[in-house]
Design goal:
The chain starts with 11 loop residues before the first strand and ends with a strand. The chain folds into 3 domains: 63 residues, N-terminal domain of TfIIb (Single Sheet), CATH 2.20.25; 52 residues, no CATH class; 72 residues, Single Sheet (N-terminal domain of TfIIb). The protein is built from 1 helix and 21 strands. A hairpin with a 2-residue loop joins β9 and β10. The chain is elongated, with a radius of gyration of 24 Å. The chain has a 7-stranded antiparallel beta sheet with strand order 1-2-3-4-5-6-7, with no helix packed on it. By secondary structure, it is mostly beta strands.
């Protein structure tokens, strides 16, 4: 006589399209919007699930369920930065990705064998990522206040901001204070690897005031 034990969550669906099932070796798993999750830990009521590709691709997407109902979806956090040329990049854990198609982004490094990539949904959330790179992340130099940041004005002009002051591009590697015409000699110099190698932040004027708009652009406020 063979006794078969069936689990109530294998396979069941709920109103939100969650699919609970067992893996081939009997581990609890969850499928949501086409992606699979492993059970990470649980309490009497709550369960936390992590993307099944976490070990292979370092994907950090998680779900939280309470009594098999979806309570929280934790998407992968990222930042949007601008390259020196004004190109928008997605940064995840220090690595940057450039857009290749409408929803697909690949590692922006020059390493030919790097296969890291990610995918966004129509809400610009990362829904799929391979964040395993064949190289170290590019180093970003920080000032005493915050990171050097490239900002985009309403008209599309790109400025470099450091410690609240802005710099305009003079050449591929040289940026001069936006008030150079007023006699300010502050400047920033990058090397070929986009690392700051010279930083003179001695200005002869007050910091300009900018307001960041909802679309990510900056608008200069009248002083």
């Amino acid at each position: 006589m063979v006794l078969l034990t069936f689990y109530y969550y294998y396979i069941i669906y709920n109103s939100l399209g969650l699919e609970f099932f067992l893996s081939r070796i009997g581990n609890e798993m969850l499928k949501y919007q086409g992606y699979k999750y492993h059970l990470r830990h649980q309490t009497e009521m709550k369960r936390v699930w992590r993307c099944s590709k976490n070990y292979a691709t370092q994907c950090k997407a998680t779900l939280t369920t309470v009594y098999n109902e979806l309570m929280k979806v934790t998407r992968i956090p990222y930042d949007v930065v601008l390259s020196q040329r004004g190109k928008r990049l997605i940064m995840v854990d220090g690595y940057t990705f450039s857009q290749t198609k409408s929803t697909y982004w690949t590692c922006s490094s020059k390493f030919a064998n790097c296969k890291a990539k990610l995918k966004l949904n129509n809400k610009e959330e990362i829904i799929e990522i391979n964040n395993v790179h064949s190289h170290e992340p590019r180093k970003y130099v920080k000032s005493s206040d915050d990171s050097f940041e490239f900002i985009e004005l309403i008209g599309g002009k790109i400025l470099l901001m450091a410690e609240g002051f802005t710099f305009a591009k003079a050449s591929q590697r040289h940026w001069y204070c936006s008030k150079k015409s007023k006699g300010c000699k502050a400047r920033v110099h990058f090397n070929a690897e986009n690392t700051v190698i010279q930083y003179d932040n001695n200005h002869n004027h007050q910091k300009p005031v900018y307001k960041k708009l909802l679309n990510g652009h900056y608008m200069k406020c009248m002083s």
